């Protein structure tokens, strides 16, 4: 008994910390019922009403939008709006639908990065090579010999944001009216916005400009948004593939993924969503194509998101495409390659478990857009907007309404399914053993061991309080998924780990460092096996604890606690 107690004490002391709500808390749902899932269906009905009510405001009369939600396998929801106020001389598509085309602007950066990962896996480039290895003509103040391809893709290069756009001199007839000194254009480049978009800028223009400008930060010191990062990466792709950027995107991504409407060349107006007023529909972006040129639809983008959801950890050796690369300014905001990642604990009604959104937004005159992947739920949403004013306001509201409604409905559906699949009392298959576990699940606590008896020892009542429990705190034993299987080929034998979690303090008495949590999943071993490993074999309806040498089956029969056999 003392050996058992020592072993259990080791387990508990190794796993408990000031962590509260681990994420993910469940395996990625597959959404086999699709849009027929009752919780999602209810949310979709609510969404349609909320979206239509919002966009009916007269100040949004020139805004059109397309929204589509997809799982890993199929689209689940779509909603479209055609602006009442349209361009009379060039109306574009008469009715917005899933095939309607928008400029997706900086979402293009994800395609450029995907192309980069393909080439890294093919061995034609190394993400940790300096960009100067591929563009040796880069010289000047910026230390390009210290800026890797990975740093460029992760917004960590420290180089300026733009070189041919966003100049106040081009926006205001007389800048002296807002306190700026007189200036002229004689020393400025002669392309893109500085030349009324004709001609577009080329590689020579870009390199020349960079060679005469200073960095914002040292490489890898601070993250800051830069379009130039991806213009350089596009040039690298052209040099290692001996193709134009457009040819490479078409042959490596658009065609293989069957994104038949997606293009870099300006498409005809058949599917075009053309907002009233000035817009970027016809602008040739030249060397800036890799940072923001692509035209696409929600149907094609859902295809793209499905591919990402199922391949994000298998695109290039050693790369999980969803992992952050650096901090951004917001507490829960991070840069990836080139994702804009947001983690929030404010979205779930019954829990402060963080939910992760892997996003990329884009904006050009006349167009704003955002894709948001929700990896824990196996979902992705595309929002494309065409407008002439209030564009950011429209996108932000659509993003808030859609993502919050969808995540909350998905959460309800997930826990209802987990309750059916996991909850209950499990008893040792060998009925001579006095070992059992009761699992209870909820959104607020996850899947929790409500009781755990091993060889007649009540683990929760006798062992935890004696050898670990802090009388000032409450705790629970929670199961968390590793998202791995004992049989990966057949996707059988779900591997979970038991973690001891504290209950979160709120209000007075909560210390600053209460939020400090370092993930520590692999705890004590017994005879070389992890003590906190649990394996679910759903086909057989059993739960296995390998280190405890016990297999348990869900049971409705009452236990006979007087039987006791020490496991050998």
UniProtKB/TrEMBL annotation:
SUPFAM superfamilies: beta-lactamase/transpeptidase-like. The keyword Signal applies. Residues 1-17 form the signal peptide. The keyword Signal applies. Residues 422-554 form the Beta-lactamase-like ARB-00930-like C-terminal domain. Pfam families: ARB_00930_C (PF26335), Beta-lactamase (PF00144). Keywords: Signal. Residues 92-389 form the Beta-lactamase-related domain. Belongs to the beta-lactamase family. This is Beta-lactamase-related domain-containing protein. It comes from Saxophila tyrrhenica.
């Amino acid at each position: 008994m003392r050996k058992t107690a020592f072993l259990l004490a080791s387990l508990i002391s190794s796993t408990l910390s000031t962590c509260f709500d681990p994420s993910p808390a469940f395996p990625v749902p597959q959404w086999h019922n699709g849009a027929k899932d009752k919780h999602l269906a209810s949310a979709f009905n609510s969404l349609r009403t909320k979206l239509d009510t919002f966009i009916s405001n007269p100040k949004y009369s020139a805004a059109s939008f397309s929204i589509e939600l997809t799982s890993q396998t199929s689209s689940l929801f779509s909603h479209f709006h055609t602006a009442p106020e349209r361009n009379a001389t060039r109306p574009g598509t008469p009715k917005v639908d899933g095939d309607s085309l928008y400029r997706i602007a900086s979402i293009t950066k994800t395609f450029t990065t995907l192309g980069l990962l393909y080439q890294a896996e093919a061995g034609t480039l190394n993400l940790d090579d300096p960009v100067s290895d591929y563009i040796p003509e880069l010289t000047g103040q910026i230390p390009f010999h210290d800026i890797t391809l990975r740093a460029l893709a992760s917004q960590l290069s420290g180089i300026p944001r733009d070189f041919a756009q966003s100049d106040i001199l081009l926006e205001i007839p007389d800048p002296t009216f807002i306190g700026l000194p007189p200036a002229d254009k004689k020393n400025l480049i002669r392309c893109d916005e500085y030349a009324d978009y004709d001609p577009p800028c080329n590689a020579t223009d870009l390199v020349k400009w960079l060679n005469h400008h200073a960095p914002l930060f040292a490489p890898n010191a601070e993250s800051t948004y830069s379009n130039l990062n991806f213009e350089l990466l596009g040039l690298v792709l052209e040099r290692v593939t001996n193709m134009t950027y457009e040819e490479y995107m078409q042959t490596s991504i658009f065609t293989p993924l069957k994104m038949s409407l997606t293009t870099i060349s300006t498409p005809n107006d058949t599917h075009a969503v053309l907002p009233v007023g000035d817009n970027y529909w016809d602008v040739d972006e030249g060397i800036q194509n890799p940072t923001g040129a692509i035209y696409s639809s929600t149907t094609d983008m859902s295809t793209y998101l499905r591919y990402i959801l199922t391949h994000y950890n298998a695109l290039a050796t050693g790369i999980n495409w969803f992992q952050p690369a650096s901090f951004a300014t917001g507490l829960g905001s991070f840069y990836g390659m080139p994702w804009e990642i947001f983690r929030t604990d404010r979205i779930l009604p019954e829990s402060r478990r963080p939910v992760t959104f892997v996003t990329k937004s884009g904006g050009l005159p006349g167009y704003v857009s955002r894709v948001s992947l929700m990896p824990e739920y196996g979902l992705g949403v595309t929002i494309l907007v065409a407008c002439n004013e209030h564009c950011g306001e429209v996108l932000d509201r659509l993003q808030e309404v859609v993502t919050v409604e969808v995540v909350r409905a998905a959460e309800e559906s997930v826990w209802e399914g987990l309750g059916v699949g996991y909850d209950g009392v499990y008893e040792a298959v060998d009925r001579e053993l006095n070992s059992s576990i009761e699992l209870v699940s909820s959104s607020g606590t996850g899947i929790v061991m409500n009781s755990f008896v091993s060889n007649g020892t009540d683990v929760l009542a006798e062992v935890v309080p004696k050898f670990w429990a802090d009388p000032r705190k409450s705790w629970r034993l929670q199961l968390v998924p590793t998202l791995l299987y004992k049989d990966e080929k057949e996707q059988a034998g779900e591997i979970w780990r038991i973690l001891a979690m504290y209950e979160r303090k709120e209000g007075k008495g909560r210390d600053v460092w209460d939020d400090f949590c370092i993930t520590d999943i692999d705890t004590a071993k017994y005879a070389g096996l992890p003590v906190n490993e649990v394996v679910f074999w759903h086909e057989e309806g059993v739960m296995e604890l390998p280190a405890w040498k016990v297999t348990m089956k869900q049971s409705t029969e009452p236990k006979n606690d007087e039987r006791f056999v020490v496991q050998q």
